[in-house]
Design goal:
Length: 408
């Protein structure tokens, strides 16, 4: 028997009445009266399909990609079919179906990565740069996982078994803590929701993924520490003086670092800061107080940014240097969880300083001094009371510590 090179593989649509969904594309191979008919995981609307050419019409937006895939699958199927003939064997359609599934799974794995890249590209129009960066990190982890474990990564194999192996990989190979793993899984689920909506994915097992996490610690400066830092003489160190002013401005206003970096002189009028927050796009009005007003007066101008621009990473690096200089040596317990293992160590407060601690310092000190909860939440644009109420426990513990220190 000669090689089969023409008309062996056919593609046709499975037409279903009373449906608005695109029709499934099936691969069909016939051998000695027996027929293999196999769904290839692709769909298309009938108006975009050419029955004669058995390919997508040129005006279809995804025609080039889909037709290239069909051509590749066609060639692969013919090659596998011809191997039986060359070896003088009877064509086994069941085994040929397994070979086709191997091909589809390999393509599916490549599709997940390319689809994730597509999602990141599209998201650049609507998501913040730092959010895009976090999705890219999750994609990198997924690629590393597939390479290191040789896991057959397809939409159909993203199941409970995948979840267990992937979490173990992030824990042991990437050395992530539970909180970081939980964020990674959350990003992956967001992408899979998008892929499902796009019709790329039909498997919704991922929606059941749950990852153990632990409530994050709240670190802050006490009022005495904050005033000590705010009043510390830094006239001979202009670089750290600017870092101190930005940090303390956050401690006295509750503003996020991104909003402070974006703050312009035009945003401040009539003793109020008027901004639309970058993270939540929430309009907000924050009254100045004697401390934030005093800091602003150092930089007061007519237009442009109030503070000199600096990356969050470099800011945090300088902030730790500042903490060591002003001797923020109060010991705090740093706790992390990796799997079921709790790791803890005692460090100077200067070593855990970051831009995030400014907001936490504002909230804890405002609560301790009696500011109403709803006012604080309005200033900090907190909408979830369950998240906010963690601060009450911190403030209560702080009050007890101060009571013991003063009265024993």
């Amino acid at each position: 028997m000669g090689y089969q090179t023409k008309s062996l593989v056919k593609f046709n649509l499975k037409k279903v009445a009373n449906t608005k969904r695109p029709f499934q594309i099936f691969l069909v191979v016939t051998y000695k009266g027996k027929r293999l008919r196999h769904y290839i995981g692709k769909r298309i609307e009938e108006k975009n399909w050419s029955p004669n050419k058995q390919r997508a019409k040129s005006q279809y937006s995804n025609a080039t990609t889909l037709n290239a895939f069909l051509d590749k699958l066609d060639k692969y199927t013919v090659d596998e079919y011809n191997k039986y003939l060359v070896e003088g064997e009877v064509v086994n359609l069941d085994k040929l179906k397994e070979k086709i599934n191997d091909f589809l799974n390999r393509e599916d794995s490549a599709n997940i990565i390319s689809h994730f890249e597509e999602y990141i590209k599209i998201s650049k129009n609507s998501k913040k740069p730092n959010t895009i960066k976090s999705y890219q990190t999750t994609l990198n982890h997924l690629e590393q996982f597939a390479t290191a474990t040789k896991y057959n990564l397809t939409y159909n194999t993203i199941n409970n078994s995948f979840h267990e192996i992937y979490v173990d990989f992030l824990l042991k190979n990437v050395k992530l803590a539970n909180s970081s793993i939980a964020k990674d899984i959350k990003k992956l689920k967001t992408f899979l929701n998008w892929a499902t909506d796009k019709g790329y994915n039909k498997n919704i097992n991922y929606q059941k993924f749950k990852t153990a996490t632990n409530e994050g610690q709240i670190f802050f400066l006490t009022w005495d520490e904050l005033i000590h830092l705010n009043n510390y003489d830094l006239e001979e160190n202009e670089r750290l003086k600017k870092i101190r002013d930005v940090f303390c401005f956050g401690c006295f206003t509750g503003m996020r670092f991104s909003d402070i970096m974006n703050l312009k002189h035009e945003n401040i009028k009539d003793d109020y800061i008027f901004i639309t927050t970058i993270k939540t796009s929430t309009p907000n009005a924050i009254p100045l107080n004697q401390y934030s007003r005093s800091i602003y007066n150092k930089y007061k101008g007519k237009k442009g940014n109030v503070f000199e621009q600096i990356t969050n990473q470099k800011f945090n690096e300088y902030l730790k240097e500042l903490g060591r200089l002003v001797k923020l040596k109060t010991q705090v317990q740093l706790v992390t969880y990796k799997g079921g293992i709790r790791e803890e160590k005692m460090v100077d407060k200067s070593e855990i300083l970051s831009s995030h601690i400014a907001r936490k310092t504002f909230i804890t000190n405002a609560l301790a001094k009696g500011m109403k909860t709803e006012v604080i939440m309005d200033i900090t644009t907190h909408k979830d009371y369950k998240v906010f109420k963690r601060y009450f426990k911190v403030v209560d513990e702080h009050k007890k510590s101060e009571m013991d220190k003063i009265f024993g």
